[in-house]
Amino acid sequence: MRRRALLAAPLMAAPAAAQGAAVDLLLVLAVDASGSIDADEFALQREGIAEALSHPAVLAAIRSKPRGAIGVAMVEWGSPGGAATVVDWMRVADAAGAAAAAGAMRDAPRSRQSFNAIGDAILHAAQLIAAAPWAAGERTIDVSGDGPDMRSRLPAPEARDLAVAQGITINGLAIEAGSAWRDGVLAAAYERGVIGGPGAFVLRAEDRRDFARAMRAKLIREIAGDVRGTTG
Q: CA–CA separation, 228 vs 232, rounded Å?
């Protein structure tokens, strides 16, 4: 119990005071960098994120919101307790801002990770949201990965419940590249143990090369608030 309380404590802090104009959404992209992701697969993920974030349809979704701006950051996860912020908060309100964020997320050095500790990644991302420099009515953690939670210090369902209690929605992108996780098996595991909050959903990428398409669809849905069920 004490272990859980210590891990959960940072989530109880009030969000940081806004230091600039408010944004519509605070979005943390929590990306799998564990040992199952080789260099080529890692590059595909990074390129997919950059492509999705700067896509005209994603920019249109941002412009459709009342403030026309989002805050985005990227976290890499894997090692128990080792989730790392590789790109801190960046404001995206136009093509130039999207290009800057996309470039930062494509080119950031890879963190050192192992195993699959999704619960710890959720806690880290929630702490990042609590410390964001802008206020936002919507706060989302976007977990993408090719396997389920395995080695978290705090299991993913418990971390999810703590984050949801703070008004954060957690969505999932299941990369079903391994034979053990294909045909919706990984997506179902994410539904049970990762996602949570109003309108939470899971999308599937059939393989690594499908990642950019799935990430783009996910961003549009998260930003525009288009909720149409739990899987896709």
A: 9
